[in-house]
Amino acid sequence: xxxxxxxxxxxxxxxxxxxxxxxxxxxxxxxxxxxxxxxxxxxxxxxxxxxxxxxxxxxxxxxxxxxxxxxxxxxxxxxxxxxxxxxxxxxxxxxxxxxxxxxxxxxxxxxxxxxxxxxxxxxxxxxxxxxxxxxxxxxxxxxxxxxxxxxxxxxxxxxxxxxxxxxxxxxxxxxxxxxxxxxxxxxxxxxxxxxxxxxxxxxxxxxxxxxxxxxxxxxxxxxxxxxxxxxxxxxxxxxxxxxxxxxxxxxxxxxxxxxxxxxxxxxxxxxxxxxxxxxxxxxxxxxxxxxxxxxxxxxxxxxxxxxxxxxxxxxxxxxxxxxxxxxxxxxxxxxxxxxxxxxxxxxxxxxxxxxxxxxxxxxxxxxxx
Length: 369
Prior knowledge:
The structure is a single chain. The chain is α+β, with helices and mostly antiparallel strands. The chain has two domains: about 30-165, no CATH class; about 220-369, no CATH class. The chain has helices at about 1-25, 110-120, 185-190, 200-210, 215-220, 295-300, 315-325, and strands at about 30, 35, 45-50, 55-60, 85, 90-95, 100-110, 120-125, 130, 135-140, 145-150, 155-165, 165, 225-230, 235-245, 250-255, 265, 270-275, 280-290, 330-340, 345-350, 355, 360-369. A five-stranded antiparallel β-sheet has the order 4-3-6-7-13, with no helix packed on it. The radius of gyration is 23 Å and the shape is globular. The termini are far apart.
C-alpha cells in the first residue's frame, strides 16, 4: 500500500512538473507586433480586430483600406511593452470591398507551433547574429479567407489558415465614424481609387476581370519539392540572396550557400542575389517571374514594391510546375548569372528534364567597390 501510494505521488509529481515546465515555456516573452495584408486587387478594411496573448492585445482596427500586396505590409505598429507573451487568439470583423461583404471570426492561433518557430529563429544574413520573428501578418483574401504569417529580417512563414463567416452589420449600432465603412458609396470609392488599387491592376480588372478568388488561398498555397541554385562564374562569390514565394513566404540565405535543401515550397516570383568579384566589386541581380517590364524599374524606385506581379497567375512557370513536372519528385531551379555579359538564364531541372523558363525580367547592377 505504501509502495502504491509512493508510485501515485511520484506520477502526480512527474505530470505536474511536465505541465509546469510546459506552461513556463509557453509564457516565454518576445518582442512582436501585428498588422494586416491584402492582395493588390482585393482591398479590405478592418472594422474591429485584435491579435492577443495572455496579457497583451494588439489592435488591428481602423488602419484604413489596405491592398498592399499578398503577404506584404504597408507598415507595422509600434507596441509596448517590447517583451510579451506570444499570442494565441485572433479575432476580427472586416470589409472585403470586391466581395461587397463583411466577414467575421474568432480563431485560436497555434501557439506551440509559433513558440517553436520563435525559439528556433534564424541567423541574420548581414550581422550573422541569431534573430527571430517579430511580426504577425494577417492576410485577408476573398470569401472570408485568412492566412497568418510570421515575419522577421526577410524570412516569412505561414502558420495558419482560417475562414471567417459572412456577417450582417447593423448600422444602427455603429458609431458615426464607422458607419461609412458599410455603405455602397464607400465601397465604390475604395475599389475605384487608383491610390488604393494601382492603375495596372485596375486596367487588368477592366480588361480581364478579377483573378479567381481562390488563387491566393488555394492555388498559390500549393507546394512542390524544389530548391533554387545560384551559379556564378569562377572568381565570383555570393554574399547573400533572397526569394519570395507566391504563398506569401520568404527566405533569406546566408553567404556562401548557393544551393538550398530541397523541400516543399510554393512557386517563386522574385529573387534578389548579391555577390562580389575577385576585386571586391559589388553586384546585385534582381529577377522577377513576369513579363511586366515596369516591375523592376518600380522596384528600383521603391524597394518595398515586391508584390506578386499582375500577370503571374498566367505566367508559364505555373504551367511548367503543374503540368510538366512531377510534384513529388525533386526539382532544381537553376539560376545561371553571367555578370560580365549581363546575361541570366533560368532552367527547371528534374531527372533528365531541363525546362527553360523564358517569361521573366532581370537586371544586373555593378556598384563597384
